Amino acid sequence: MNEAIKQAEKEFLEYVKKMGAYNEALSIMFWDLRTGAPKQGVEQRSEVIGMLSSEVFKMSTSEEMAAYIANLTTAEAKSELSEITLKTVEECKKEYDRNKKIPADEYKDYVILQSKAESIWEEAKDKSDFELFRPYLEKLVETNKRFLEYWGYEGNKYNTLLDMYEPGVTVEVLDKVFGELREKIVPLVQAISESPNKPETAFLFENFSKDKQRAFSLEILKQMGYNFDAGRLDETVHPFAIGINPGDVRVTTNYDENDFRTAVFGTIHEGGHALYEQNISSELIGTPLCSGTSMGIHESQSLFFENFVGRNYSFWKKNYALLKEYASGQFDHVALEDFYRAINESKPSLIRIEADELTYPLHVIIRYEIEKGLFNDEIEVKDLPQVWNKKYEEYLGVIPPNDAKGVLQDVHWSGGSFGYFPSYALGYMYAAQLKNALLKEIPNYDELLESGNIDPIKEWFTKNVHQYGKMKKPLEILTDVTGEGLNAKYLVEYLYEKYGKVYQLNL
Amino acid sequence: MNEAIKQAEKEFLEYVKKMGAYNEALSIMFWDLRTGAPKQGVEQRSEVIGMLSSEVFKMSTSEEMAAYIANLTTAEAKSELSEITLKTVEECKKEYDRNKKIPADEYKDYVILQSKAESIWEEAKDKSDFELFRPYLEKLVETNKRFLEYWGYEGNKYNTLLDMYEPGVTVEVLDKVFGELREKIVPLVQAISESPNKPETAFLFENFSKDKQRAFSLEILKQMGYNFDAGRLDETVHPFAIGINPGDVRVTTNYDENDFRTAVFGTIHEGGHALYEQNISSELIGTPLCSGTSMGIHESQSLFFENFVGRNYSFWKKNYALLKEYASGQFDHVALEDFYRAINESKPSLIRIEADELTYPLHVIIRYEIEKGLFNDEIEVKDLPQVWNKKYEEYLGVIPPNDAKGVLQDVHWSGGSFGYFPSYALGYMYAAQLKNALLKEIPNYDELLESGNIDPIKEWFTKNVHQYGKMKKPLEILTDVTGEGLNAKYLVEYLYEKYGKVYQLNL
């Protein structure tokens, strides 16, 4: 290999490793803040986090970084460097370009705006007062529109925003798959609401002690193949999974002593995220490739485990007796079949994060349509509450009684995260498509769940998804595994089959 | 103020703050590693810690730092800068000088040697084989002797090593006070061993559940004035306190279900360290002055609370009933007086960290005498086991059956920490001297303990010790508070009075 390139590669990888080290320290501090850091230390900790983050930002946009990118993207370099190095350069270049295109003072103003907007949003949500938040949201949208001009775009303007979370996914693709999904889910929701065969659910809400819920959750994590030598389970208000490095991927959950589902399905969901991060190839440690490839693929892993494993009948055939052991009698007179129907209850609701798996995609689609409208000048911020409520009525048949339960419910926009929401529904579609591919190789899927042998399923995901980290783009993973692009059909089929049975519908 | 100086000060303080931020991140990672970090993440975490540490080291010895020191130590600067800035510069200069005087390649070799020596020491201790460790210890001593030549010294060579942990304390001082201490303690230990009035202790070793021990320990921490909004209590094999910043000072303890003293006195000890760190003036946050001024003064705080509070009769007059509530009956038929005598049992033993408060200083003095001999070429490493055992026999009347329980017992030397041990006994002497001063202002000391009102005692320490951080040197604190230098008399008096009573001696 050309000596100059070899030397540049060596230095570049060291440089990137240092950025990774700072990010690892930041992750630990993030986890610590959420799992019990003393409150009087928080202010100083925030300063420390700010200082380290800005160091990482500086490194990602430094002249040194520019030189590495220039030297390692020549034709000669491309022909000589390893794939890992090339992808690492690509990743760094993407971030460099994105950050460098924004004039420094505009970026600084934006960071200040974000932080103000988040605290105003909190207040506005508390008071259910959209007008309070409106000027900030207008400014956030306006600034992002200006940034879009700096960044440039192909086709629809909104594509550039989508690309940040789901590289390669465009409005053209989403219009098609979300359109199909909406068209099929809306009538199913309608049919369910008219069905006389609704599940009994009262028994779900009896007291189930936190300790016992935790013990049961740990059993399930173990069954999923979560590696406790490379992780731990803690308690937080808002559950999350965090990959600090593949040998340290932590999960948190939240306990509701009157609704065990919060902790159990929450843990399974976060456990799905964690399996992804635990099984990334160790070759990628120290590079920016050592994490999930996109929000959507990440969500495909959590939703797969939460719904296709955790809400599967065979899974409970194996685990219902165990659940009964940990609970204090609430399921003693409930047949497995009735339990299964209860945890798969579906009904339209106002709040996205509390939605069931059938209605959830509709919440996401509403947000997608609104964001697309905002960035194509078809919707104005001032009209949002009205637009929001109208869509909820149309798609879900419910009308928010106020903005706190409507347009103000999510934190995302206050932080300037536009283009993020679609990933939630994409994850779901990816999961259904991946499952279809998995069944070809593992036709005895239900049997495995019934015997508590989830390992072959986890291994399949590691082989096809986890190990690659960011070495493959999301759509690359999808087509490599399934042989086709995004397709709503699989999710629709799954939902029709499942809910048709749960509600005994004539479809 | 001179504009150039003003500007240099501003930049210097920013620079130092950044070093502080890295150190805060390192502290969190250190704490995390010891309180449950998943083991498969440890290797990568160590790399991250190494990278951040070396960044801090580079910053402390950089040309930038050299320029700050030069610009901020001119006569003009000294007359214009605040005391905090001046002390910060002084602290940075001390470290700069120390680190810069060692040739870079020698320092690097030394770091490698330390890490090898630590792992060999562990093996040697396991096998109780001093010969295995000997070549490493010889090299460590040799290297430190060479470093001493680079650093220079005044009077005794060993003074430079002492100065790292206890600035201002010299061999001349230690010979005097340790000599006096030894001379007085040895006959007291002898008298006790011959006393027929030994306390009954069997009841100490009954089962006391971990949860209950923890609950009781939390009560005591609260009574001490430990601020739980600025701290937390966790469990580790080796207890410690860590000041991450004054708003985040964490304590850990270890539970022995058959000996509650481990957790209770351990927690009080670490709590004493924590009170120090929690009450450093917030003005010092972000500077290297924001921590305890020396190992010895730190130990004075932990030992004060452990022994002068936690092993005080009045303290248990208040808390014995509470302890009984948490215990499962083991003290039900034990009178307070007998309990008090039991927790103050003294008898010569082999292991320093398990020693009682009377014999403890002798363990330290032995190590001091050995280190002084090593660095003044009066003792050779190869003779250490023999020298060690002889001194144990002479001072404590016990002979180690093997090197694991003798010369290999402490980790310190394997890490190249020479000059550290004396701080343990100094802390004890400081504590006794400070208590004497405290009694002049708070003569109703015992009454306060008896009523559970420890606050005025804590406040006194905050006013006289805690708040200053490193703004005052250890001996400066001592003389400012007591009006005199180190004096063994107060500790001797305390020990004679206390143990005279516990063992009903005719002294």
Helical fraction of chain A:
55-70%
Give start-end ranges of low-pLDDT stretches of chain A. Answer: none
Oligomer: homodimer
Radius of gyration of chain A from CA coordinates: 23 Å
Order of helices and strands of chain A: HHHHHHHHHHEEEHHHHHHHHHHH
Give the termini separation of chain A.
64 Å
Tally of alpha and pi helices of chain A: 21
Provide the spatial order of strands within the biggest beta sheet of chain A: 1-3-2
Query: What class, by secondary structure content of chain A?
Result: mainly alpha
**Assigned CATH class of the domain at 202-347 and 427-472 in chain A:** Mainly Alpha
Number of strands of chain A: 3
Query: In the CATH classification, which architecture of the domain at 202-347 and 427-472 in chain A applies?
Result: Orthogonal Bundle
Query: Most extensive chain contact?
Result: A-B, 41 and 40 residues
**Strand content range of chain A:** under 5%
Q: Biggest β-sheet of chain A, characterized?
A: 3 strands, mixed
The chain-level mean pLDDT of chain A equals 96
The 3D shape of chain A can be described as globular
CATH topology of the domain at 202-347 and 427-472 in chain A: Neurolysin, domain 3
